[in-house]
Amino acid sequence: MTFTFRPVDPLKDAELLHAWVTHPKAAFWMMQDARLEDVEREYMKIAADEHHHAYLGLHQDGTPAFLMEKYDPAHRELVGLYEPQPGDIGMHFLTPPTDRPVHGFTRSVITAVMTHLFEDPAVRRVVVEPDVANTAVHALNEAVGFVPEREIQKPEKRALLSFCTREQFLTATGAAA
């Protein structure tokens, strides 16, 4: 599967994102009780933040397929929780609910997200901090090369701090030369 990325338009995309982030499948996104206005406000805040960016991943026909956020962990999410290195980038992704699951879709999404992040030559390592209870995403992360380092306590959750270098990603996905 091939995807393209475009920045989230906080007002235009708010209804779609609201449906995604408030669905029970998105419990780990922690926006279950968000109103439409809350989603608009959150993504307007991200759009104005030089250290945090939100993108929609699009199918080849241009329809939205998933949400991806990237952030600078030296300034957002992980400040004071680990020692950031030059070239670190933080990432979140969310696949929407569906009545017709496609085998391998989420794996294709995380692979596309990682490929997109590593297209920036300045990115040397991707950092994630999923909830320790989110075992499905731990397995996906491992499949693309993430190595857990330790559990950390964030204000909103107990998280599994994990890292993936470009080399680990290329090896795990079979793209290493």
UniProtKB/TrEMBL annotation:
Acyltransferase MbtK/IucB-like conserved domain location: 6-53
Pathway: Siderophore biosynthesis; mycobactin biosynthesis
UniProt name for this protein: Lysine N-acyltransferase MbtK
The protein's role, per its UniProt record: Acyltransferase required for the direct transfer of medium- to long-chain fatty acyl moieties from a carrier protein (MbtL) on to the epsilon-amino group of lysine residue in the mycobactin core.
Pfam families, sorted: Acetyltransf_8 (PF13523)
InterPro entries: Acyl_CoA_acyltransferase (IPR016181), Acyltransferase_MbtK/IucB-like (IPR019432)
PANTHER family linked to this entry: LYSINE N-ACYLTRANSFERASE C17G9.06C-RELATED (PTHR31438)
